[in-house]
Design brief:
alpha/beta, UDP-N-acetylmuramoyl-L-alanine:D-glutamate ligase, eight-stranded mixed sheet, four-stranded mixed sheet, 10 helices, 14 strands, globular
């Protein structure tokens, strides 16, 4: 059995985006991408050289195979995907815009295959004692249905029983549940996780309008003995260790080409560095550097180059033309 550095679990969908900032009602064609927060993180980790597996429950159809094949193409092991003959693939539409018009996302994911997944369908061959160092899950999977939530809770329990670390990203989505429901729905996983990622925007919807310093202390009191990581957009990122030590890291401002997946890229960079070097400040640098690079890439997947990200971590500016 291959020992993975990280295993991720969650829904991946087809993304359809009109080209050239067209509105959906204008377009006659769509650009096709693959996107899902957990598989985005998996691809980012793989691009940095880690041994990563992603699993989900997917329809055994051309669309399901397209999604799985694209994730596998970038070095992620997809052998543990559960295939079904009877369900559908989630799809989302992304209408891009510039100010003052807002970009928008339209989901078509009701009753998708993973939303119907039950704990008994978890891949037993994956959940073994030395199967992985860490399991990464997010609040999105908790939000898409009771079956999926129960399955995530069971996956976290299995991972902890096996001695794996667990990381959790709140990844709040207002079109899936309310802030109040998210607080309740995420509680079990946050209680058992070793690492909690909570963007400041998520915190304000779920808990209250505190400053970042206050917010991270409130989370630490509610969920003690955790490594808590809070991203703050253009204000950078902050991490608090279980002993109360805090670190901050400035953001790296990038010219925005593809915003979606920036948070997932941050998680990938942070987890890569933390698992490799066990140094939180360095991990924050990798997180913001990965996120900045993702902003320059179309689509959801952080198709970064390791050396470019490493150079940014070391403070070397990118840009220009390399010949």
């Amino acid at each position: 059995m291959t020992q993975y550095d990280v295993v991720t679990f969650g829904e991946s969908m087809l993304r359809l985006t009109p080209p050239d900032m067209l509105r959906i009602e204008q377009t006659r064609t769509f650009d096709i991408y693959v996107g899902g927060t957990e598989s985005n993180t998996a691809v980012g980790l793989s691009r940095l050289g880690m041994n990563v597996a992603w699993f989900s429950r997917m329809p055994d159809s051309p669309l399901g195979r397209y999604v799985s094949n694209r994730i596998q193409q970038y070095g992620v092991d997809t052998r543990h995907v559960i295939w079904t003959d009877d369900d559908r693939l989630g799809i989302y539409f992304h209408e891009q815009a510039v100010s003052p018009r807002s970009s928008q996302i339209i989901y078509d994911r009701k009753d998708s295959a993973i939303s119907l997944m039950i704990p008994d369908e978890l891949p037993n061959a994956l959940f073994v004692e030395d199967g992985a160092k860490l399991l990464h899950v997010t609040g999105i999977t908790l939000a898409i249905g009771d079956n999926a939530k129960n399955t995530v809770d069971e996956a976290v329990k299995k991972a902890k029983d096996l001695g794996w670390l667990v990381s959790f990203d709140t990844n709040y989505r207002s079109k899936l549940w309310s802030g109040e429901d998210a607080v309740t729905g995420c509680d079990t996983v946050m209680t058992h996780a070793n690492i909690i990622f909570c963007p400041m925007g998520d915190y304000r919807v779920m808990y209250g309008d505190e400053s970042a310093d206050e917010a991270i202390e409130i989370l630490a009191k509610k969920y003690p003995n955790k490594l808590i990581v809070m991203t703050m957009g253009r204000e950078g990122a902050m991490a608090r260790l279980a002993d109360g030590t805090k670190y901050t890291q400035s953001a790296i401002i990038a010219e925005e080409v593809g915003r979606i997946g920036g948070g997932d890229a941050f998680s990938a960079g942070f987890l890569y560095s933390y698992l490799t070097h066990n140094d939180v400040l360095t991990a924050l640098k990798w997180g913001v550097s990965m996120s900045a690079h993702k902003y320059t890439i179309h689509g959801d997947l952080p198709l970064v180059d390791y050396d470019e990200v490493a150079s940014l971590v070391e403070g070397e500016a990118g840009g220009g033309l390399k010949r």
